[in-house]
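User: For my dataset I need records formatted as: sequence, then structure tokens, nothing else. Please produce one.
Assistant:
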Amino acid sequence: MKASEKFWQIAHLGAALHGKSDPRKRYDTYAEAKTAAERTATTSGQPYAVLECTHVAQPGDDATPQLI
């Protein structure tokens, strides 16, 4: 993954624990995502997590070789 592809998102922590998280906005820096998570947590009264992208799968990235 290139550094330019690195991004962060935020998600409602309670939803993430149950597989219902739906992050939509990308943040270019951890600081931006952290600020957004803290602001959203304060206004909603709910915990929010900062999520970091660790891999971007591209078409053709399948590591399984095709034998045919």
